Amino acid sequence: MRIAVFGGTFNPPHLGHMAAAEACIRALSLDRLILMPTRLPPHKELPAGSAAPEQRLEMCRIAASQIPRCEASDLELRREGPSYTADTAEALAAMFPDDQLWMVIGTDMLLTFDRWREPERILRHCRLAVVARDENDRARIGEKAAFLRETLGARIDVVENAALPVSSTQVREDPALTMVHPAVAEYIRANGLYPPTLETLREAVRSRVSEKRFRHTLGCEKLAAEMADRYGADEYTVRAAAILHDCTKALDEKEQLTLAKKWNIIFDYSPEDAGALLHADTGAETARREFHMPKAVCDAIRTHTVGGPGELTAEQKILYVADLCEETRSYDGVEELRAAARTDLEEAFTLALRRTAEFVRRQGRTPYYVTEEQLKKQTERAEKEEEAMAELTPRELMEEIVRIADGKKAKDIVVMKVDDQTTLTDYFVIMTGTSTTHIRALGDEIEEQLKKRLEILPHHREGVTSSWVLVDYTSVVVNIFQQEARELYALERLWSDGKRIDITNLTKED
Ligand code: ATP
């Protein structure tokens, strides 16, 4: 059999790789061409945000399935340590002792071939099949091939391919994914691989909206990022969603409807609302299709006009609020919303929903039912929370928090009663977490448990620094530190006039 192995990083495999593979199969009358993603390429570091090895393999499988006689192999991925082609060549020769073997390489690889590890060992087992990456490469390929034949006795076949000058680097930077096969693009989108940089998104949106709207977009991004930091939400998600939230807003109603029809967007807005609301749906779909944004980003864009349906994530609420009170917005009441945005996400979200409903009513229209339902839910929740708070004494709340923190392995929990020293709170609960992830997880656990079991939400939460998370339940303020930060800020010393509470009965013995 005539078998060729086409090795590479394939991060991701693109149309250039596929065209080269097809050209080799044809020109060399191959029975099999095997795409073989490398584990750790000896000559390059994988850039941040690269696909995982298994994902590169899966993309090779998808690409191979589009080409007759092409397949993908995990041979190099299964091997520990860096992938040296010489080892692969030897392994292949052992696997296919009676077959004719080729290694497929592009121009760049041919030009450095003599600097690879043990090129002679590769050449002992394989012929080289060289494909041009650019039509201008032909002369250099000819020269280098002659040199390698002469110096290393290389057996080289220069393949007459129609060069397609594209690189994986370019693909990773192209949000539209034009240079990969649609099936590979689908996989990239579905797995949220190679998210475009925020600058790429800003530039794309700048060309689609008016200058004024672009200023609003940037204002929205700025406030959303600030809120993400304060409320522990994902920064990339809120920034990307803020940048893209109005990306189709410049389209008129007819164009919006055409897009909605083309993309099968189902909506039940009244005809008079569609013009104002539909850009959230077409924007979310544009984010998914053109910018391969992950679901969390698309969801935030989709809910940014109506605030629902269903339970929204922190990222969705942040975009909804930031859109209404970022720094370029100016209307009666904006200051109140802005202040709430910086102190209490739930309160700000409720206020923003109420403001929207009132605004629509003042225009003589009826608010969209999803907005009304969400507002009702938020209001009921706030009332319940107040009731729950009223039923629970500060001491019971503090004890509950200590139990949750202890269960999540918080270290050195200390409780200070400070109601004689300040009117701000009754108790400080101070604890140590082992890492930034641990302190965040402790904050999350306390919040989630209290919300789930007692329907109590914090008044506000903030990552004061990356090593200090503060969750404020008004009568109890929780401070979660990493050890160094705990020593640095020394809250226990600062509040040493307070009364230290014995909590040994609340914590498990180690
Ligand atoms: P990156 O941009 O991340 O460096 P790349 O596009 O060069 O990636 P690799 O996976 O490193 O892709 O390349 C694997 C093999 O495919 C190499 O031998 C390379 O020369 C060859 N190759 C890459 N792009 C093309 C192309 N457009 N045409 C022909 N061969 C190509």
Instruction: Classify the helix fraction into a percent range.
Output: 40-55%
Q: Which of globular, elongated, flat, extended, rod-shaped describes the shape?
A: globular
Supply the number of structural domains.
3
Question: Biggest sheet, open or closed, and with what strands and sense?
Answer: 6 strands, parallel
What is the assembly state of the chains in this entry? single chain
Determine the structural class based on helices, strands and strand pairing. alpha/beta
- CATH topology (fold) name of the largest domain: Hypothetical protein af1432
Q: Tell me the fraction of residues in β-strands, as a range.
A: 5-15%
**Cofactors and ligands present?**
adenosine-5'-triphosphate
Rg, nearest Å: 30 Å
Unreliable residue runs: none
CATH architecture of the largest domain: Orthogonal Bundle
Helix count, DSSP H or I runs of 4 or more residues: 23
Q: Mean pLDDT across all residues, rounded?
A: 92
Distance between the termini: 66 Å
| CATH class label of the largest domain | Mainly Alpha
- The CATH homologous superfamily name of the largest domain equals Hypothetical protein af1432
Question: What's the count of strands?
Answer: 12
Q: Order the strands across the largest sheet as they lie in space.
A: 3-2-1-4-5-6
